[in-house]
Amino acid sequence: MKKPITAKQHSLIDYALVGALLTVPSLLKLNKTAKRIYAAEALVLLPYVALTKQPVAIKGLIPFKTHGKIDPFNIGQFAIQTFFKPFHRTKKALLFNIAFTAMAGLTVLLTDWKSSD
């Protein structure tokens, strides 16, 4: 089965997910600790996305296949943090973290890691 998400689409989704980490927690009025953690995660993920060899890279240094091998660890970390106090303190924080993890996970599962656009 050919996977429907290309390298370019994956990267655009990644940029959108980074943007969501930087904006949605504030819009949802999540607790200060959760907002800080999401902002820190976004600042780690942005260079990783921007430096991956793909059509919308700022500078392609990281092979796209390597990006694909790292992504599951990022998703696992988001899944695990669901159990930490700042993320299950309120229903909004819990739902955002679960939804974010699911979106990122689906993106990875549906990405054609052999595509180069």
UniProtKB/TrEMBL annotation:
Keywords: Membrane, Transmembrane, Transmembrane helix. This is Uncharacterized protein. The keyword Membrane applies. It comes from the Bacteria. The keyword Transmembrane applies. The chain crosses the membrane at residues 93-111.
